[in-house]
Design brief:
- The chain has 619 residues and is an alpha/beta fold.
- It is 43% helix and 22% strand.
- A 6-stranded mixed beta sheet has the order 5-6-7-3-8-9, with helices on both faces. A 6-stranded mixed beta sheet has the order 14-17-18-12-19-20, with helices on both faces.
- Helix 3 (102-109) runs antiparallel to helix 4, helix 7 (207-239) packs antiparallel against helix 8 and helix 17 (546-573) packs antiparallel against helix 19.
- The chain starts with a strand and ends with a helix.
């Protein structure tokens, strides 16, 4: 049964002045679809969201919405009212306030670590953000729009949100820079690329492979157009004098195609362009130790009680270390950084730093950006037109272009920039001369994926000591080799590797401690472990039944058949024109693919289970 169509846009056109942002914009939103929306800053993601909510009308084309279908939008900027509580703020979004939504509020508010009686005016920026998210989720609209929902969220909350959204009954459209989050929650991708909306029929985990195929196909088409144009140019050069009057229109068409082809080639080249960053040279130091914590203790008073940040903490940071820091808000991450750079001293113990270190610090609050300063003045405070970039002189406009700014923005004040643009400007300022010790505090907030990829490339070539505080799991896996996990109350775990390695160690530790979460219908972990130990004893292991043996023999053939079916469906969905040519077939292939994948996963799990039983029975 096909999912209900909730909203449709056909042949939409959006213009800003004489310049069109969208032409021929067409898409459908169906019940239950989980979609992520990606594209460069300025590509029109927010405009597309506003088209869906109805806040932005189409200049041309049609927008249709199912009667009674509701649209909810996660608010980016919250202006709390005096005296308003979190409960009042959430209930303001609900039409029915008779108490029937109380259970939903409890389900959402507790994992988001909010207190219903807290005043909105007393909340931090991160707490306001979580309150807005709670309001959007409790409202349960038919179409839920989320704009960077993971910003300022702890990793545990992000994982909870992933699971919540997977089971969300309505449609969802999400903008986020968090690749791990998008891969977990999305079933398809809307890609805004050079004024066009391209639809990837699978989740974000497969987007890069699909996008590469699209770009290769576009390159082949441009190559074919060039061949046709070359033939036309040759004809024009040989025959235009003899047939000028009769074929003047053909010559004009040839010139128009040449201009279009040149523009399309330039657009593709610009889209594929990568900034090359040379590895930074770091001078040899007399000592390999950059920083050392020895029995460090730090606490502060919060609401009349002492809160411990560090307790008898020992850590040695070597030059060239790449350390990621994770933990809940308030667990002490920022205090640790301030101790590191000397803005704060420990209550007991010592923090020793190498004398020849040069620090660069990316502050998530962006306090070093003066709102009335121009972009050029931020980068060149001495008034020059040139900036020193790792020992080389660069014109400020060219350097701004590296960070995806239009050079015409050089004289614009910082106050005119968006949050993502301010982060890019901060990165431009810091990465010009990052020094020997680079600290990045939540650098990925508000960045688009192109800037995120650029930052990863830059850090890959950085040879100094790197400290990164981030909630972006994929970014941590790409950039660091050690993790410090601030668990609260002075407890800090150290793990070699990235975020995935931290997760694996945490799972092992929970299993060893007998603290694995109990699953429904199963005994508590310690009893379960004892039962498993008993089950492994040879005398208690029974042979497979005839039905189980028959099932085990036939499962490999079923797995092969499902893998072949998935391969064929993938091949069909790889056709970029399938959705336009045959929407019904596209929907059927998409549903069949999801069903086949689920069946394959179940068959593989069942084979593992039966094979384990067979091996145990045979000793």
């Amino acid at each position: 049964m096909a999912a209900t169509l909730l909203l449709a846009v056909q042949d939409g056109v959006i213009r800003y002045g004489d310049k069109p942002l969208f032409e021929g914009l067409s898409f459908n939103i169906r019940d239950g679809e989980k979609t992520c929306l990606i594209g460069k800053n300025g590509a029109g993601k927010t405009t597309l969201m506003n088209i869906i909510t109805g806040a932005r009308e189409l200049d041309e084309g049609t927008r249709w919405q199912l009667q009674g279908a509701t649209v909810g939008y996660l608010q980016q900027d919250i202006v709390p009212r005096e005296g308003q509580t979190v409960r009042d703020f959430i209930f303001a979004a609900l039409n029915n306030q008779d108490g029937s939504h109380d259970y939903k509020i409890e389900i959402v508010v507790e994992p988001l670590q909010l207190h219903l009686d807290d005043k909105m005016t007393n909340l931090s920026g991160g707490q306001l953000r979580r309150a807005a998210l709670a309001r959007a989720l409790v409202e349960e609209p038919d179409i839920l729009l989320l704009d960077e929902p993971t910003n300022h969220l702890d990793l545990d909350i992000i994982e909870w949100l992933e699971n919540y959204l997977k089971s969300y009954r309505g449609a969802m459209l999400c903008i986020s820079h968090d690749k791990s989050f998008l891969a977990a929650v999305s079933q398809q991708v809307y890609w805004l690329d050079r004024g066009k909306l391209k639809i990837c029929p699978r989740g974000f985990g497969f987007f890069e492979e699909w996008a590469a195929m699209q770009l290769e196909q576009e390159d082949r088409e441009l190559h074919n157009r060039q061949k046709v144009l070359d033939i036309e140019v040759e004809w024009a050069s040989r025959g235009v004098k003899a047939r000028r009057k009769r074929n003047v229109r053909r010559v004009e068409l040839m010139k128009e195609e040449r201009n279009r082809l040149r523009a399309d080639k330039n657009a593709l080249k610009k889209m594929l362009a990568k900034i090359e960053f040379e590895p930074q040279e770091i001078a040899e130091a007399s000592s390999k130790v950059a920083a050392e914590f020895y029995n460090a203790y730090k606490s502060y008073n919060e609401d009349g009680r002492e809160k411990t940040i560090l307790s008898k903490f020992n850590l040695r940071i070597l030059r060239g270390d790449r350390i990621g820091i994770i933990g809940k808000n308030g667990s002490g991450k920022t205090s640790f950084l301030r101790l590191l750079i000397g803005e704060m001293t420990p209550d007991a113990g010592k923090v020793k730093m190498a004398k020849d270190l040069t620090f660069s610090y990316f502050d998530q609050k962006r306090e070093s950006l003066k709102p009335d300063y121009s972009l050029q003045r931020i980068l060149c405070p001495n008034g020059s037109d040139y900036i020193d970039v790792m020992g080389k002189s660069r014109h400020v406009c060219g350097y701004l272009r590296d960070f995806l700014f239009d050079p015409q923005q050089a004289q614009h004040p910082v106050s005119t920039l968006s949050g993502g643009q301010k982060n890019r400007l901060m990165l431009a300022k810091i990465m010009a001369n990052p020094g020997s010790f680079l600290i990045l505090d939540e650098p990925t907030n508000d960045l688009d994926m192109d800037t995120l990829d650029m930052l990863e490339d830059m850090l890959a070539n950085y040879k100094g000591t790197l400290i990164v505080v981030s909630h972006d799991r994929d970014f941590l896996d790409q950039t660091v080799t050690k993790i410090l996990a601030f668990e609260g109350d002075g407890k800090i775990d150290a793990v070699i590797g990235g975020y995935q390695d931290y997760l694996a160690q945490r799972a092992r530790q929970r299993k060893d401690d007998g603290n694995e979460p109990a699953k429904p219908g199963k005994p508590p972990p310690k009893k379960q472990a004892a039962a498993q130990e008993s089950a492994l004893a040879p005398k208690s292991v029974a042979k497979l039944t005839y039905v189980q043996e028959y099932e085990l023999r036939n499962l490999p053939a079923r797995i092969d058949a499902l893998e072949e079916e998935i391969m064929l469906l993938d091949a069909q969905l790889a056709d970029a024109d399938l959705y336009t040519r045959d929407p019904a077939l596209f929907d059927k292939c998409t549903r069949d693919l999801a069903h086949a994948k689920a069946s394959l996963h179940g068959a593989e799990e069942r084979w593992l289970e039966l094979e384990s039983l067979r091996l145990a029975a045979e000793g």
